[in-house]
Specification:
about 80 residues; elongated; mainly alpha
Amino acid sequence: MEVPGPDSDWRSPQFRQKNVAQIEDAMRMAGTPHSKSSTDMENHAYVKAKSREEYLSLVARLIIHFRDIHKKALGGPGE
């Protein structure tokens, strides 16, 4: 995610909304029902993170998790 600016830009609603959209896309691709919304998941990562790097890492892990679910649903090898 190449968003230039100060370290606090990750706290902006626009930046966070882009990450919500990415989580939502990954969830939709996975095709499995989830008990939490993409907004809930992003908010959890936001509250837990103490820095931009930690926030992006948590969001990335969520997206990778859903991509792995999608791969397994297609019968591909899991990583």
